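Q: What would this complex look like in 3D?
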Amino acid sequence: MSYFSIFFQYAGQYLKTRLTYRADMAVEIFSDLLFQAVNLIFILVVFGHTSLLKGWSKDEMVFIYGFFLVPFAIFGAFFNIWDFTDRYIVKGEMDRILTRPIHSLFQIILERMELESLFGVVTGLAIMFYAGNNLGLSLHWYDPFIFLILVAGGALVYAGIFVTLASIGFWSDSRTDIMPMMYNIGNYGRYPVDIYNRIIRYVLTWILPFAFVGVYPAAYFLGREEWYIYAFITPLIGVIFFAISVFLWNIGVTKYRGAGN
Amino acid sequence: MGKYLEMIRIRFLMMLAYRTNYYSGILIYSINIGAYYFLWSAIYGDKPSIQHLSIVQMTTYIAVAWMARAFYFNNIDREIALEIKEGKVAIEMIRPYNYLSMKMMQGLGEGIFRILFFSVPGMVIVYFIFPIQFTSHPATWLYFLVSIILSFVINTQINLLTGIATFFLFNNDGLIRAKRVVIDLFSGLILPISFFPGWAQSIMGYLPFQGISYIPSMIFTEGFQGSGVIHGLLNQALWCVVLFIPIQVLWATAKRQLIVQGG
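A: Here is my prediction, written as structure tokens for the whole assembly.
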């Protein structure tokens, strides 16, 4: 069976299990929406007291946040590996994964997917259209395609960073809180990077490139030409970081010894 | 009374055994404080003050709001929900103590641990990183102390309410998550209540949430002066008393319709 058909088989099963508990799913989507609304409210309230933030207007900030939500939702739907060490290494579940005929990382993605996170894509698009409309942005015929590429780049940046962190579990299964820490650092990418100092900006661009999830790609649609170069290397950065992470993962798998019992 | 003090002590010791888990927590809170510090610096730009708060007061506000969160925050809503789902609550009810008071004491044990091993060192660390000002008025410190104790009580009462709701909803993970988001926003953790537009402020005036973070943080940064401090403290004290009523009503109703599945 090809990876594609396996994916759709798993997704179909997943939907069936979720739709059995519709009320629970509705509440979950609602609380996600609430969470997304909080950040939006923050931006809106703050702009009641200032008209520009380091040269960015309210609608531009809102647009960047809307863009950020899309790759983040895709990442959240497929890369639930924040508890990888606990769930798969410490409990020895990785043994089972390795007996499966597909790539171990892909198997974990299938098992841990949370498709309801994809609702964030809808929220993100709605926010972008609202802000874009206020800004009077116009779309070229090729913009939707560029959008898809930039979103994929952003999602790969996130995936790359978190798969790399998960791979550490193969070498050391001691408890660390590095994952939640990284989620919080990731929030820095929701805002324009020029509000941070030089060091943080450098880190967010080249070391933990969360800026490529929000502000850089969004700058393309906002017509901020000084950021174009960063916008266009977004897919490249995504592919590089994801490739490194898969490389590390593959080495890590060979170091896996099982929990043994 | 002795048994409740013992509860606080045991929870404190339990937390102490896992204290290394908390060092990373300080780092996470510092990262969050950092994000908001940079945002606010950009928002202030050249403005000397917004809504009567200077940038230094604002930074102090964020730092103290997050560090105080470590004190009042607890997971007893989740614990209660779990004990109800697993049916353990039936055993808890026949034990010779009041279940809800016991939960509150456990939360307090956790809070005392966190204030000593999380908030205080965390505050010292962020003091060296960000421009924060500590007041030199002893009275302010005293008011702040009273205020965060009241904020702990209010937050814990809301957690108890959320926990007891499991009796009626059976599965309330969503409610617990939603409550957390609502508290972060409406308590003034993310941004001071005084920044909201007037209509939103007047709605929030009727809600208990600002007693959790906004009032203690404003007292600490001396954004409240004179009678403002007293009003704030009275508001918190009032909510502590008012919230007691729905808890008792819900708890009495819940006990009557308790269904224990298995056990």
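A: To summarize the key features: Chain A has one domain: 3-255. The two ends of chain A are 32 Å apart (CA to CA).
Q: Very helpful, thank you.
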